Amino acid sequence: VSDQIRLWELEKNRLKADDGVLYEDFRSQPDYEILLNYANSYDCVLWSNDSKRLFFVTLQGHQIVREFVKRRLPGGT
Amino acid sequence: MVKASKGILISCDPAVKQIILNLNDRKRFIIQDLDLQHILVSPDSVQTIKFEVEKELERNTFQILD
């Protein structure tokens, strides 16, 4: 029975769903890096891909990153 | 200049991801296929995805037991 429970738990853990926001369409590599580093400093990046210039932040992280975009990249979002 | 789109990040192993891709053929909910183990989906589809994936995994387990 314990094996079955372990197996069941394993399956439960095979899928994780997180609410958040995907950032994409960066104009340049520095824009991407600045924003990603900023988001990372708040520990809110759940996934990122440097070659595609994409990253995903938590909903809370989005509030912080959005403010930063408004200040640092005029005309952003 | 930079786009931010809300969604749900699904993190899973490649086998589960394949199940989700198959589900998406019937009902479109994938916003973006990110990589081997990550997909961005629309928020209202998460319950359905979890339910269907669970169902599929259980079905496979029973098949092995048979």
TrEMBL record, chain B:
Assembly, per entry: Component of the 7-subunit TFIIH core complex.
Q: Keyword check for Transcription regulation, yes or no.
A: yes
Task: Report the superkingdom from the record.
Answer: Eukaryota
Its GO CC terms? transcription factor TFIIH core complex; transcription factor TFIIH holo complex
- Name the principal localization, coarsely classed: nucleus
A GO biological-process term: transcription initiation at RNA polymerase II promoter
Q: What is the organism field in this record?
A: Wallemia ichthyophaga
What is the protein's known function? In NER, TFIIH acts by opening DNA around the lesion to allow the excision of the damaged oligonucleotide and its replacement by a new DNA fragment. In transcription, TFIIH has an essential role in transcription initiation. When the pre-initiation complex (PIC) has been established, TFIIH is required for promoter opening and promoter escape.
User: InterPro entries from the xrefs?
Assistant: TFB5-like_sf, TFIIH_TTDA/Tfb5
Tell me which UniProt keywords the record has, alphabetically. DNA damage, DNA repair, Nucleus, Transcription, Transcription regulation
Q: Name one Pfam family in it.
A: Tfb5
Give the protein's recorded name: General transcription and DNA repair factor IIH subunit TFB5
